[in-house]
Amino acid sequence: MVEIFVINGEEEEEGLGSGFFINENTVLTNYHVIKGAKKIRVVDYEGEEFKVLNLCDYDESFDLAKLEVDANHDYVEVSYENYNIGDRIYTIGSPYGLTGTFSTGIIAMTLRRLDTDTFYTQITAPISHGNSGGPLIDQYGKVIGVNAFTRADGQNLNFAIPSTYFL
Q: Would the pTM count as exceeding 0.70?
């Protein structure tokens, strides 16, 4: 897992998100985390920083982006299997800069459609600003989604992009 720091103007960091390696030199995150960035810093949880070489792919409608980084890093396995309401899930991210925060919950709804054509996985595991782009993990340690957003006007209404949308 990694933290993603975004610089949009001056040399001051203006944004924070999460991400994870999907192969030895590619990090997956939300597009909204890196949108408009002039510079991006990627740092793993051990403090090692990786140079971003390229924005290799992105899809604004699915809110996903892949960053090619100068690394040969361990990565997580992605699962494309079906899951069910009530299945146990876990999130890892850096809400408000609290590196490596781990939370647990269940799948509250599969394929929740909101204001777009995208379907989301609704989860009960708490996520906050800074969790965006972090992995949604099943009970076997496989990534099944990307944590995307929370509804601030509700109580514990959190959403992830299912792995079926991964680029």
A: yes
